[in-house]
Amino acid sequence: NTKLDLSASYAFTGTVTGTPQGLVLVHSSSSSSSSSSVTIDNIFTTTYSLYYLDMTFDRSDTAGTYMRLLKSSDGSERNSNYYMTNHRMHTNDTTNTSDSDNNVSTFYFNRGSGSEAGLDTRFSAHFRNPMGSSNTYMNGVIYGYHDGQNAHTSQHLVGHNDTEEQVRGIKFVANSGNITAYNIKIYGYINA
Question: Is-contact 48 188, C-beta < 8 A?
Fold first, then answer.
């Protein structure tokens, strides 16, 4: 029975076999420049059918933020046929709020995405099948400040775009004011 000395250095000369698992970083960007929108193009490919996005961002006001998918054919925004439900909880209230949007022009993060309280807004989401020939699905969680409630809020978002076409990217847009800083990482799931 051979024991390895964990304080020693070893060289590997073999071949790794098997099926790789896990996440692969496909995009990473950050900025502290103020802009009304952030576009992340050419991130979705046929290599992965499931993607994970992790993002923090700051806003110049407490208005909402929306997200649109970018068409694979020409990179333009898909501006119709979004369906989403949004369940929202506030830190100063035990009342939960639910919204649903049917056949609208965007995935809208509601007014809970402002950064007025000096806290970054956190957003994470999964995107299913963006480069497939059927609907693209999104489910996400956002945590930020809600100006109308004067409190922090968390939201669970689930939706899809029912236009059956490939999409290659996403665009985040400030409803008013600017996105003043962001840090975005996007991963593809291996063998999802």
Answer: yes
**Rounded Cα–Cα distance for residues 136 and 148 (Å):** 31
Q: Which of 187, 43, 49 is nearest to 124 (CA)?
A: 187
Strand partners, 183: 30, 56
Question: Which residues are CB-neighbours of 118 under 8 A, at least 6 positions away?
Answer: none
Q: What pLDDT shows up at residue 1?
A: 61
112 near 153, Cβ under 8 Å? yes
Contact (Cβ atoms closer than 8 angstroms) between residue 61 and residue 177: yes
Residue 121 is predicted with a pLDDT of 83
Token digits of residue 82: 């979004």
Considering the entire predicted model, what is its pTM?
0.83
Q: What is the pLDDT of residues 34-44, one digit of tens each?
A: 999 999 999 99
CA 85 to chain centroid, in Å, comes to: 16
Mapped onto helix, strand or coil, the DSSP state of residue 18 is coil
Q: Which two tokens stand for residue 154?
A: 């968390």
Residue recorded with tokens 């480069």: 131
Q: If you average pLDDT over every residue of the chain, what do you get?
A: 84
Mean pLDDT of 138-162: 81
Distances (CA, A) of 116 to 4, 80, 140: 54, 30, 22
Q: Which of 46, 33, 55 is nearest to 170 (CA)?
A: 55
